[in-house]
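Protocol check, entry for the methods section draft. Step 1: assemble the input record (protein sequence plus ligand SMILES). Step 2: submit for complex structure prediction. Step 3: store the structure tokens unaltered in the notebook. Ligand used here: 2-acetamido-2-deoxy-beta-D-glucopyranose. Step 1 record:
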Amino acid sequence: MDFIRQIGIVLLIAVLSSTHADNPQIDPLIYEEQLLWVGGGAGEVNTYRIPLLTFTTRGSLLAISEARKMSSADIGAKFIALRRSKDKGATWSPTAFIVDDGALADGLNLGSVVVDEETGAVILIYSLCFHRYHCNPSSTMMVQSLDDGFTWSAPRNLSVELGVKSFAPGPGFGIQKRYLPNVGRLIVCGHGSIAGDGVFCILSDDHGKSWRYGAALKSIPYNQPKQDLDFNPDECQPVELEDGSIVINVRNQNNYHCRCRIIVRSLDGGESLPVEELVFDKTLIDPAVAAGALQKQGVMYFTNPSSAQHRVNLTLRWSFTDGKSWEKEAVQIWAGPSGYSSITSLKGDSPEDSKYIFVIYEKGHKDYLLCSVARNETINPAIADEQLLWVGGQIGEVHTYRIPLLTFTTKGSLLAFAEARKLSFKDIGAKFIALRRSTDRGATWSPTSFIVDDGALADGLNLGSVVVDEETGAVILIYSLCFHRYHCKPSSTMMVQSLDDGFTWSTPRNLNPQLGVMSFAPGPGFGIQKRHPPAVGRLVVCGHGSIAGDGVFCILSDDHGDTWRYGAELKSIPYNQRKNNLDFDPDECQPVELDDGSIVINVRNNKNYHCHCRMVARSLDGGESLPVEQLVFDHTLEDPAVAAGALVKEGVLYFTNPANTNSRVNLTLRWSLNRGKSWVKDTLKVWAGPSGYSCMTSLKGNETADHKYIYVIFEKGQKDYYESISFVKIDLYSNQ
Ligand SMILES: *[C@@H]1O[C@H](CO)[C@@H](O)[C@H](O)[C@H]1NC(C)=O
Ligand SMILES: *[C@@H]1O[C@H](CO)[C@@H](O)[C@H](O)[C@H]1NC(C)=O
Ligand SMILES: *[C@@H]1O[C@H](CO)[C@@H](O)[C@H](O)[C@H]1NC(C)=O
Ligand SMILES: *[C@@H]1O[C@H](CO)[C@@H](O)[C@H](O)[C@H]1NC(C)=O
Ligand SMILES: *[C@@H]1O[C@H](CO)[C@@H](O)[C@H](O)[C@H]1NC(C)=O
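Step 3, stored output:
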């Protein structure tokens, strides 16, 4: 195994088919994803690695991993970490450490989990001193649970009966034979090195009471150091086919013959692995890693980082021919760094159990090749490009551009919007909505088009929030009319949308018949579409009101923007009345969704209540409520009371504002690796001078090119912050 520091271990639930169960069509969809472990936090172990996943006979899921105490290395002291789910992966018990190897120099290594479906026992086999680093000999160890993974036996030393050959089981699951020959036999396969070199299996015909060696597939040269391109079968995952044969999907450690998986087959219940049965599966390209395999209802599934060179691009494949061929469609689970994976499914009677498989895998956000660097030091943002998109007051131009918004589209374009204030710099008055599009990641931009014109209103339009429906591809822009009720009444909440990547726009639609006439100033910034439960697919647009509907609130649509209703509200105090300085007055705001499904709203603290800093509100119910108990003041995010930018990208939270308690100067990018609990000390100064509102986005289209960048749009000036609107492309990993 390699020296790797990974970021998290993730459980993923894939729906195999949305159609009827007896339809052989497999059309997997990622249904839900949750991070189960992230190492390196305060009081945490250094690294979690080597995730295993199994069903139990009572229908629970058990997720098991190595908790590496002090370093990310394969050697060293570890716990075995366990989390249980009794509701098909929706919720998980807190981590229990079921085995502790103390302070060994070459501690435990996972491992293989096997369920005895006759007794209900869950058996976990792992190794101690596998690398013989400051210790000798290696031991093969076993613990078991007879109560659905709740309590575990003391470790038992299987080397007493097996001998002291180095055996690294799995990683993955072992099997219990269901078909002839040897129904009921437990088979755990793994690999050895030096003593017992290659793939081999251990067998038990008495429910784990006694074990012996079975099949072996020996490396060449055997029990000797290997070179590149030598035959060196390594970590492996067995599955049983309906004909009773056992197929073992094997890591091709030294890239012998191909950069792809080795497949070997046992026809005698794991007693032998004849070389005649060995094939190289060139469809399953592989960077040499532990992969996941599962046989379910006649379909074989396979997960690995599908790349010949790097541990990236975790991909799910499936085969209707027991692995002889693979379907052309494959589902990319994660384009970025991804390592070991394991798959399981439940065997209950409910239709869901035939519909879902569960994948656990190592997931990260940076290149595995650089992983000895601590993860908070990998983000090293630098400005890669900057362009002024709008400068007001030129000949024939509108007076002032303000309130910039920026969004991605599902086709990978960038759309920049701003208010084009026709005759003055003021918030009231007549305006256009200006748009520029870029289809080349911000390198070039279309000329400005004015997609909405409010005529000559005394209290015209105000931006605004842009939200992309990733299911339909629609780009929806919500803005207000007559927000200040200056020579007009009532306020209106308006919507336009584009169904062609921002090229053409619908006529404005007044949402007041659905919403009523509360004053609502959306954003400014972007709205979100929920990706994680609850309320997956919901559009959530947050903003603030004043006088009628005073404070922060959100409007929600569960039908792709056809109908909208009010959701969460965080009321100002005194409500719907004039505020004094230092009153509680939540104002302009930017929501983001965290990977736990909560919505975090970064809010302008308009009257500097409690601090000259940002307020952060949180909704745990998909934008229905914003409980005051969840509200915090983030003293790190000093702020002069302004609209700020926030963005979640690949688990990292980014924030932009003029970082100054009194003036709109010093536009600064910050980032947090723990969902905003704290911010990395380093910052990127985007512009030291006058700077106002800002908004961020990132692209999701082309993972290789789009992983590296975020895009910021902000108000920038030499003397006044509203002189121009600037677009900045930021390279997050500028030192790589
Ligand atoms: C396990 O048993 C083997 C063989 O008796 C012995 O050499 C080894 O030290 C034992 N390991 C542990 C951890 O007790
Ligand atoms: C990811 O995997 C898929 C399926 O094997 C493959 O088509 C694609 O080229 C891979 N992408 C990268 C960047 O390796
Ligand atoms: C700019 O922001 C940085 C980071 O918060 C801070 O250290 C610095 O003092 C700020 N400078 C000004 C002039 O506000
Ligand atoms: C990175 O993390 C380490 C340990 O958690 C900490 O000591 C260090 O100050 C952090 N570096 C930055 C730039 O935040
Ligand atoms: C991804 O980006 C690279 C570099 O810009 C480009 O060569 C490639 O064609 C893009 N792929 C897709 C699918 O857009």
